Amino acid sequence: MKTVTKFFATALTAVAMLTATNLKAQDMSTSQPMTTNGMAFKIGVGVNAGIFPDRSEMDYGYGADVKLQYDLSKDVAITASAGYTRLRWKGSPLNFQFIPLMGGVKTYVIDRMYLSGGLGTGLAVKESAQMNFIYTGGLGYEWNNGLEIGARYEGYVNNSASDLYFMKTGQYNLRIGYNFKL
After folding, report:
1. pTM for this one?
2. Residues 2-32 as b or e (16 or more Cβ within 10 Å = b)
3. Which of 29, 57, 120, 173 is deepest in the core (most CB within 10 A)?
C-alpha cells in the first residue's frame, strides 16, 4: 500500500472515530436560537506536516501557522492565515521556504466536523525564489475546548522565473491546532 494511501486512511479513520459519538439527527424546528460553534471570533495556532505524491519532485513539508476565524453563522466561517512552510526536495539538500498567506471558508457539515477550502499566495523567503498560487481543500474536526485536527490537500503553482522552479505540485497535509476565543 502506498504511503499516501496509508496516510489518508489513518487520518480519515481518526476523524471518523472522533466524530462518531457526536452525530445527531437534524431537528426541523424553527424555535431553536441561532448559535455559533462555541466561539464567534477566534485566533488559532497550529503545526502541520505533509507528504507529496510519488510523481512530485518534492519529498515532504512542514510548517506552522496563525489562523483568524470568524463564524458567519453556526454552519459557515471565513478564515485568514499566515505562517511558515518548508518543502524538501527528494534526494537533495535543497529546500523551498515560504510564508503562506491564505483566505478561506469552513463549512460545518456534522456538528463540529468541517469541510474547508482556501486560496492564497506564498512569499518566498529566499530572494530569487517565487511562489505564485496556493490552493487547499480538506476536512477536520474542532472540539469545544479549542483543539482542532484536520487533513487537507495543499497545491502549489510556482513562478517559472524562480531560481527554485518546480511545476505544479501539492502535498497531503495533517494539521493540529488550538483556537483561542477573542
Report:
1. 0.72
2. eeeeebeeebeeebeeebeeeeeeeeeeeee
3. 173
